[in-house]
Amino acid sequence: MLRKLRDIQWNRVLYFTLFFIGVIVVVVIMTIVGKRDEQQLCKEVKIVIEGTEAFIDQADISKLIAQNYGSFVGKKVNGIPFQRVEKTLKKLPYVSNASIHADMDGTVRINIDQREAVMRVINKNGREFYVDPKGLKIPTTLKYIPHIMVATGNISEGYNEALDTISTPLVKDLVKVAEFIGKDELWSNQVVQIYVNADHDIELVPRVGTQQLIVGSADSLEQKFELLKTFYTQIMPKVGINAYGVVNVKYGGQIICEKRGNWSFSDDQTKKVANNTL
């Protein structure tokens, strides 16, 4: 009998006993937590909106939730349809992402990532919309007007209030030009608007001067804007701000300037300009 007792591996018995006790404790805790979660009431709702724009605010989100789901405060947390609420929020044209969850203390937290507008488009029919960096259209609103580049002129891209993507190569090019300008302090201060002319070439409307600045497309933008910089820093100071009516860099390798019809250069100015590549 004593030998049989000695043969028993007491360490293994102790291990399995402690393991079994641990499983029981976990089950008990989960049961208690589960029952508490079933009774947990929503005490408050906190809404956090991320992003640099102000298309929507906390009041807009609260109103939308109240209209579709009623007030969350006082409801059981496990009775709030979190997934449905997220889907509703993600359908908003100003929202890029949304999430909702409840803390252990009964606080329901709603996190919103707001879309960023990089350009405002006014097409040839007067239809307006914003475009975000991903090429998605955003409806305009009188509530908030972002300080961004505006593109007008011969633009056929339409908008039907849906959250769709831009469909024409021209508007895709316009976005690239707007983003390029927005990242450069010099051009952000000098260019006030983008215009598409009858030939579907992209023009820049300058803050200083009245020239037509033709860049054509979004190809070779760094080279084209470097040529424009050459015009402003080397050519314009020699001939005057209004000497040329058109400055064309659409071909990327050269500056083509057209003199205004009623403008004449002195011999000295002609020599100075001739030293630059025009």
From TrEMBL:
Keywords: Cell cycle, Cell division, Membrane, Transmembrane, Transmembrane helix. The chain crosses the membrane at residues 12-33. GO terms for biological process: cell division. This is Cell division protein FtsQ.
